[in-house]
Amino acid sequence: MSDTKMFHIRTEEAPLLPAPVSTTGVIGWMRQNLFSSISNTILTVIGILIAYSIVAPFIQFAIVDAVWNGENREACLPQDGAHGGACWAYVKAYFPQFIYGRYPTDEIWRVNVVYALFVLLLVPLAWPSAPFKRTNAILFLVVFPIVAYFLLTGLVIGGSVILPIVETARWGGLLVTLVIAVTGIVASLPLGIALALGRRSKMPIIKMVSIIFIEFWRGVPLITVLFMSSVMLPLFLPEGVTFDKLLRVLIGVTLFSAAYMAEVVRGGLQAIPKGQYEGAMALGLRFWPMMYLIVLPQALKLVIPGIVNTFIGLFKDTTLVLIVGMFDLLGQIQSSFTDPTWSTPSQGHTGYLFAAIVFFIFCFGMSRYSIFMENKLHTGHKR
Fold it and tell me: Helix 347-377 and helix 329-336: axis angle, to 10°?
């Protein structure tokens, strides 16, 4: 045999082999993030045990042992020593009151129309690429509040009843929660921007008034504000002059939220480099065009998380109106506990669980939308 060695020279590129299963997909993610070291493995196991101890009883109560249908408390009472689950039959029976309060049954269609208009106008306004933004904003901020006011309260023209009057004392449930939250959110943002600009103003009087307003409302608990607006304010009004209780609550909540919003916006204004102001003035822009076209768009973009956080806090703080006799969603749920028809050991837990789910849906939705807008508006300097 010849001692000549045989060699093979590849003339084509070798096919790419897939990455090892242990480094890709779910397994790879788990190895990299959950089990990358002994300490991470221990923490992961502890976290799983804690999560299981919380989630398992929750699922057992809310789903496995839950009662979904029934006519009264008998359907939800524990039987044969079994653990009582959530009484969703009670929530189903009281669902109209949780959504509309004591609004007249024959007029509930008016509330549904308001809900539908709110969604139809809000969705395209919140979507960045939707057309006719200016028209949509005018409809939502100007036309919709007027239409909603007359739909919810009623309309009488020249003695002719177009829509029967429904007093705000009969409103309740999610209706009151949304009215207070949406009004507070929409009204507090422009007022907060104005206060933030006023606090940074070079005019002493405007600056002093803005500072006093902000510090006063930030230094007073919201419960005190609601008590003052609902109980004390009528004492300072001339005889015969009254304000609707809901209107007083709306004013108090708006002013309270505007003070916090002002500080959030002021933080954004202070984060804008001085060169932006100087560049705007070099272009010959006056104060308001400079703020509207250059400064405020950048400042508000920077403080989106703070603004949404204030909105979420305001939405949850609407539950405090119960102390002044207004039955929002949580107040309506608490008032239902007095009904002996559905009095069971699990009634309170079920009612509060339902309230928690509703509030979580709204608050989580606002949180996710803020993240969406941050990703949409960042200009390459996101960290």
Answer: 170
